[in-house]
């Protein structure tokens, strides 16, 4: 018989034993969270890839957001990084800085969503840390395993290489603008569509399947233009056809109503899709694998000597302002 948890009692031990231990999947290296550290047994001929990210209250989410949404964000932001390096998730550590408004109901919903995501993408919790804080802050380190010794870099490029985008841009941005009351959408179904894209992001996990056919990949977390520029060097630039930028049917309608500017979606974050740079000889393979895995891919430009945005009239457009965490 399961021991009943007191609604008033909320200690580190209770959080670990009743909510977090189920996330270790009984893996030997976790010591069932009864050790101060854990281990990962390395697999021969595979590389261990490490990425780390954090999300904070009032910056990446709001105080009363659904705990499931917050769980999705801390997982998605890390999984998309692993996917961009051509690796699958293996394990992760989790650090929770909890304010006093966090209760049993919140932790229960949060860890239930983590459990579901772990089962879906096949990874487990190694351990982590718990601490008190004035605001909710979550940091996590994810470990991925490569399929072979090959790791995809984000800046292996050459002139005339193709530039691809997975998925659609801008939906999450519209959802955030709705929350901030900067956009008013009357149709409830359309409004909820954009809000869902903001609250419940999904990582694009096709990276490992395309790793043999792309030269470089990066996830779109800070905006397409901003993240693409991080992939480029002084020698190589990019020519992008703005009319080939992938957007959803619902966003097309929003653009026609002039509620947002088409140029603005080029530098909106929280997409967690991928920018891929590949040789043109691999176009058919990229299309075929993506179609098989039901992932939308769009060929939007090429590596060139000058950075420019063009439309179908070959008119050069202004490049939108880039996102910067410290600006």
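^ structure tokens above, recovered residues below v
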């Amino acid at each position: 018989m399961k021991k009943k948890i007191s609604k008033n009692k909320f200690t580190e031990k209770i959080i670990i034993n009743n909510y977090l231990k189920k996330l270790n999947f009984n893996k030997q290296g976790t010591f069932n969270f009864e050790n101060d550290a854990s281990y990962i047994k390395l697999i021969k001929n595979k590389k261990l890839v490490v990425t780390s990210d954090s999300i904070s209250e009032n910056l990446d989410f709001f105080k009363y957001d659904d705990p499931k949404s917050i769980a999705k964000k801390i997982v998605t932001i890390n999984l998309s990084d692993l996917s961009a390096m051509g690796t699958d998730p293996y394990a992760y550590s989790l650090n929770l800085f909890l304010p006093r408004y966090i209760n049993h109901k919140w932790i229960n919903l949060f860890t239930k969503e983590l459990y579901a995501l772990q089962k879906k993408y096949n990874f487990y919790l190694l351990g982590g840390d718990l601490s008190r804080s004035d605001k909710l802050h979550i940091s996590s380190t994810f470990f991925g395993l490569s399929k072979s010794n090959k790791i995809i870099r984000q800046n292996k490029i050459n002139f005339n290489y193709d530039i691809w985008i997975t998925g659609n841009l801008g939906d999450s941005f519209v959802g955030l603008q709705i929350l901030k009351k900067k956009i008013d959408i009357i149709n409830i179904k359309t409004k909820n569509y954009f809000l869902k894209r903001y609250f419940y992001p999904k990582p694009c996990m096709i990276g490992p399947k395309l790793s043999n056919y792309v030269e470089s990949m990066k996830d779109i977390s800070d905006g397409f233009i901003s993240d693409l520029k991080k992939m480029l060097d002084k020698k190589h630039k990019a020519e992008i056809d703005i009319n080939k930028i992938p957007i959803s049917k619902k966003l097309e309608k929003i653009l026609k109503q002039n509620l947002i500017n088409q140029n603005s979606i080029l530098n909106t974050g929280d997409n967690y899709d991928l920018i891929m740079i590949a040789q043109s000889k691999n176009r058919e393979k990229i299309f075929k694998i993506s179609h098989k895995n039901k992932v939308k891919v769009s060929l939007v430009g090429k590596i060139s000597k000058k950075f420019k945005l063009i439309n179908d009239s070959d008119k050069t457009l202004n490049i939108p302002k880039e996102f910067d965490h410290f600006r």
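Confidence is low (pLDDT under 50) at residues 1-5.
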